[in-house]
Write a structure and sequence with these properties.
heterodimer, A: 449 residues, D-Maltodextrin-Binding Protein, domain 2, 9-stranded mixed β-sheet, 9 strands, 45% helix, 13% strand, B: 317 residues, mainly alpha, MetI-like fold, 2 domains, flat, Probable sugar-binding periplasmic protein (chain A), Bact_solute-bd_prot1 (chain A)
Chain lengths: 449, 317
């Protein structure tokens, strides 16, 4: 049989029509869900809560919290689904429908801007107000900052992470250092004293300043400066905020002082995994580290062969009054805009994020920093002196974070890329580099609008 | 001009019935083609002209996404350059190496089974595991390869941590997993008629002349197949590049510490990684689709040229 054009015209037309119909609909599942679901009046409601925790102790802790919530609200039943990666929950929120989660948590704060701006997550501001909860009096300032975007409080903090200094007390004593450094100049001097060269490598490095040295990212250093990244007009201010240039310059000078980029980079490649007993601070390869509160639990478990302690990470000399601050981030939780069980979902979110006992018990179970001011001061917290350092950093009003942006962490990538160029000596004109980076960030933000 | 007579109704009905029958027979393929090829392709082109963040309804953006990718997205040209480097170098070396190994193994008198197995096995290793193993072996600080090079007094490259060595290191990884090409080249080489070699030998042809004028023309369709599929696969190169970058950088990624594909210094940044990064990390589906369309266009262009040029090499039956 000969197949000619006219023979294929009908199926081709049908296929084209189907494609066009699908394209025109361009499936977007997000939409307004229901308001009152009847749960307030005692109606039985089942909500779905997706989270990313996967370790046994973490899953038990969140399940215990949910069980306590269900006891308080017998008519609200929570179906908990754990070990959900962000990509998967985003896909579910896109698709919407009855199987999509009502309450979602995420380990990254980077997507808050997108979730708020595109109305994927419900603005919790009116709900907080309705229940008489003052966010500023309830949550630490930095945590409040990374959970909202342009006034839309579409998420709330569900435990947090604070960054501080870990130092090897045994090495400090051997080098004749009696107290942890408080300013960058003290820190540089201590790092140099603690560094023991070994040929073209090190027997012990005082501190690994390179941006790939695990937690020593530019954003974490900038937490010590209180850099804001964006101006009031929403444009990047990395070229005009003098703290950004100061941080890049300071890090580069420290790199040069401790042996130079190439030598440090080669030493870095010999480090074990960050989240293992082979972490370079645990093994004694570095005598000081910038790290989060979770390391206290790891060190207690790994029992390194030296004494260690924690302190706030030093601050620039001209900001000595702000000593005690640090970078902060954490887990966030929100309500899917498409959820038809908003009232019940809000009750769960409110309980998980604002009930002091719930926040404290969860923090105790997974060794994270509590995310409310009341919980940070709770006597029920299991906190030794080393962990208390991080509670104080979280409470410090000068602690800083990376703000939410409409295109996720793209602005951080741009700044990171510049930081790599500067530390390696490939970009020596810092002003030009910062101007180009600001332009790049603004172009990306414009593209996302 | 000839006069066209109207088609009788009976003939028209017959043709229509034939058309329906044809469509019915073709429908499984048509549905598959439509759902898995035509629709995704049309969608990609459509979304490349739309502002679409994956959450809210798409709106028409004209050429804005194209302008952004070409003129304002600083990583595009780096990614394009890296991808083309890999296509030019990795595909060429893989084809040459696969053919060379195939030739050697077909000539081996004893232990051919062992060598076939030894060269084929690495191909079976999952890409993520293989890349992590290579990152460990080539670690400049603790890896055995640099340790050995040092003992021999040879330079010790930074491999996956050095921008000038990262792509060659990925190429080494690709050559290690040459088993797929080795097998098809071996099959092709064993299929070359022996009498042609005998005739060439009688005519006094050297080994190189026998390869050039007997072997190569006979296996040219296979070479062409290897090059075309190699180009398409390399245009989609993602897993090994992102795993090597992630392992070597040591960055887990998270708030304040973004994992940047392409470590070190953007040297392993490829177009498929860009599609992921733009679409799923920056929520810019439109720009991700622009890159996907460019990938498709380049792949089609390469394939068309290779098929045209290769057509002269393929003998007529």
């Amino acid at each position: 049989m000969v197949i000619n054009r006219s023979t294929l015209r009908t199926p081709a037309a049908l296929a084209s029509a189907a494609c066009l119909a699908l394209l025109a609909t361009a499936c977007t599942g997000t939409g307004d869900g229901g308001g009152d679901d009847g749960s307030a009046a005692g109606k039985d409601v089942t909500i779905t809560f997706w989270h990313g925790w996967s370790q046994d102790n973490e899953v038990k802790a969140i399940n215990d919290n949910v069980a306590a919530f269900e006891k308080l609200h017998p008519n609200i039943h929570v179906k908990v689904v754990g070990n959900i990666a962000d990509d998967k929950s985003e896909q579910a929120l896109r698709a919407g429908g009855p199987d999509a989660p009502d309450v979602v948590s995420s380990f990254t704060t980077d997507n808050v801007g997108k979730f708020c701006a595109s109305n994927v997550w419900t603005d919790l501001g009116p709900l907080l107000k309705k229940d008489g909860i003052d966010p500023a009096a309830t949550f630490p300032a930095a945590m409040l900052q990374y959970t909202q975007f342009k006034g839309d409080q579409c998420s709330l903090p569900l435990l947090g992470d604070a960054y501080g200094l870990y130092y090897n007390r045994t090495a400090f004593a051997a080098a004749g250092i009696t107290a942890p450094p408080k300013t960058f100049s003290e820190f540089e001097a201590d790092a140099a004293k603690l560094t023991v060269p070994d040929g073209d490598s090190y027997k012990q490095l005082g501190f690994m300043p390179n941006y790939h040295g695990y937690e020593t990212a530019i954003a974490h250093y900038l937490g010590q400066y209180g850099s804001t990244y964006f101006g009031a007009d929403g444009r990047s201010n990395v070229a005009t905020d003098p703290t950004v240039a100061a941080a890049l310059t300071w890090q580069k000078s420290l790199v040069d002082k401790l042996g130079g980029f190439d030598r440090l980079e080669k030493y870095r490649t010999g480090f074990g995994d960050e989240f293992s007993a082979k972490n370079p601070f645990t093994t004694g390869q570095v005598a000081m580290a910038l790290d989060g509160e979770w390391r206290t639990a790891s060190l207690a478990e790994d029992k390194p062969a030296f004494e260690w302690a924690t302190a706030p990470f030093p601050v620039p000399d001209d900001q000595a009054a702000n000593y005690g601050r640090g970078y902060q981030t954490g887990t966030i939780v929100g309500i899917a805009k498409g959820s038809r069980k908003q009232t019940a979902a809000w009750e769960l979110v409110k309980y998980l994020t604002t009930d002091t006992d719930a926040v404290v018990s969860f923090a105790n179970a997974i060794h994270n920093v509590p995310s409310t001011l009341a919980a940070l001061s709770s006597p029920k917290l299991d906190a030794d002196a080393n962990f208390r350092t991080f509670l104080d950093i979280a409470k410090n009003p000068h602690s800083a974070t990376t703000p939410a942006s409409i295109n996720g962490g793209a602005y951080q990538v741009s700044l990171q890329n510049l930081s790599y160029e500067v530390e390696a000596g490939r970009q020596t004109d810092l002003g030009a580099g910062l101007t180009a980076t600001a332009k790049e960030i603004d172009a990306a933000v414009d593209q996302a609008k | 001009m000839a006069l066209q007579l109207p088609t009788p109704p009976a003939l028209r009905r017959k043709r229509r019935r034939e058309a329906v029958r044809t469509a019915a027979f073709l429908s499984p393929w048509l549905i598959g083609f439509g759902v898995f090829f035509a629709y995704p392709l049309l969608s990609t082109v459509y979304f490349s002209f739309m502002r679409y963040d994956g959450f809210t309804a798409p709106t028409f953006a004209g050429l804005k996404n194209w302008d952004y990718v070409f003129n304002h997205y600083p990583f595009f040209w780096t990614g394009l350059g890296n991808t083309l480097w890999l296509v030019a170098v990795m595909v060429t070396l893989r084809v040459a190496f696969g053919l060379g190994i195939g030739l050697l193994i077909t000539k081996v008198k004893t232990g051919a089974g062992f060598f076939r197995t030894a060269f084929y096995l690495p191909y079976l290793a999952p890409p993520v595991a293989a890349t992590m193993a290579f990152a460990f072996l080539l670690n400049p600080g603790t890896g055995p390869v640099n340790h050995l090079l040092g003992k021999l007094g040879l330079p010790q490259p930074g491999w996956f941590t050095d921008p000038s060595w990262s792509k060659p290191a990925l190429t080494l990884l690709a050559l290690w997993g040459i088993g797929d090409l080795m097998v098809i080249f071996m099959a092709a080489l064993l299929d070359v008629p022996r009498e042609q070699y005998e005739a060439a030998e009688l005519d006094g042809a050297s080994p190189w002349q026998r390869f050039r004028y007997v072997t190569l023309p006979n296996i040219s369709p296979i070479v062409q197949f290897a090059v075309v599929t190699g180009v398409i696969q390399t245009m989609q190169y993602y897993t090994q590049a992102i795993v090597a970058g992630k392992v070597a950088s040591g960055v887990i990624g998270g708030s304040g510490q973004q994992f940047e594909p392409g470590y070190p210094h953007g040297s392993t940044w490829t177009l498929p990684q860009m599609v992921y990064s733009l679409g799923f990390q920056r929520f810019d589906t439109g720009s991700a689709c622009v890159v996907a369309v460019i990938l498709f266009a380049i792949s089609m262009a390469f394939t068309s040229v290779l098929l045209r040029r290769g057509a002269g090499l393929v003998g007529e039956d």
